[in-house]
Fold:
Amino acid sequence: MHLPRPTRWRAFASASYRPFQAIAVGQAFTASYASDALFVPLLLRLGAPPALVVVVGATPVAGAALQAFAPQILRRLEGNLRGLTLGLALAEVRGFVLAAIVASVAAGAVSGLMGIGLISVTVAVGQTAGVLSGSNITLWTAVVLPDPERRLVGPRMGALTMALSTALLLPAGFALDAGTRAIGLWAYVAFFLVGGMTSTLTPLAVSRLPHPGRVLVARETAGGTEMPPAFRRFTNVSGIASFGQGLIPSQSLYALSVLGMSAGFAVALSGVAAAGALAGSLAAGSFLLGGSSSRVLRASFAIRAAAAVCCVAAIPVNPLAPAFLLVGSALFSGGGNAGALATNERLYRLAPANARVHCQSRFVGSTSAAAGAGSAVCATALAVAPSTAWVAYTALYAGAAISRTIATLRTEVSASWSSPYAPPTETSIPRNGSG
Structure:
């Protein structure tokens, strides 16, 4: 009943959805060749401390809290959501900037220390804008597209992105190891250039999103927009889980710094994570058409708690540590992607139709702030305990497992696996993306 249906994929493959398809392809190249998969081993190679790498990687997550100001920004822009998203999407081509910085370091024109600083700023600012761009694209589908089209487009965009990321990252790990041995930092330059060129698809596609692309955002009253109690409880539980997300050190950082694995293994680890995310996206995206988003969300928290336990088991004395890290990475991303889809679906089911912009902005703002707080704890722990680094990593993974377990137990779920908000079966498939 809930298996992926070819008819829905054929509908998504139609010409009406070309902009969404192009966004997914562009985001796949950005995520693969201009994000964490490459900048983590690159910064460590240049001599950056692990705590700094954590801070740089966490900045975009915490920076997404700026989404809380979306209603005010949209009012100033007269509801031009397309224009706001397009401006943010320009940051997706940051691969060109990263390529120029690394080329300067490789040529000796810029010192390694300055290179670390420039790369850190580019990643922090660029990925923050990219995360906000993704949030606004999701918001666009929620407030402009009818719900049946939103349920068709969102999960398939994510699945297409993850499928391409898997195909791009798994061989890239071997290529990066061979490339750095042969040409050093120039191997990173090549990957960043490829990422930058293909990522131009994202802003080009955003400019072609179907009309109208404008939303009217009402001003809040003196008492503020009243949120349904169920939505507030959902936001609070998600905040607990997001704090646990912030506690999690990058698995590639752990593999490089503690287990002594190669940069290629770290990139391949990201590829395995993308494969897990693809599986989670396909399974959850199909089920959520008529299934319970709250039950999927609770299951995703339990899966991510199990992923953290796998990472706890990946201590250096364990000969199977790399394997546990691979399994944990796949489970983190699989549960995380399924949870993201369930979160979006539950958010838009609980939020009043006339308050979706306010609800989405508040939700993203509060959960991002919670994730940022967790990341601050993570960075502090790694900064003050370098001599026993693996113990600090293990404690952080254990804390993440506890956080996700609490979220699992506190998540309110519907009476059955069928959704009380969505129809149990899909009676028609949208044929156009006119909105």
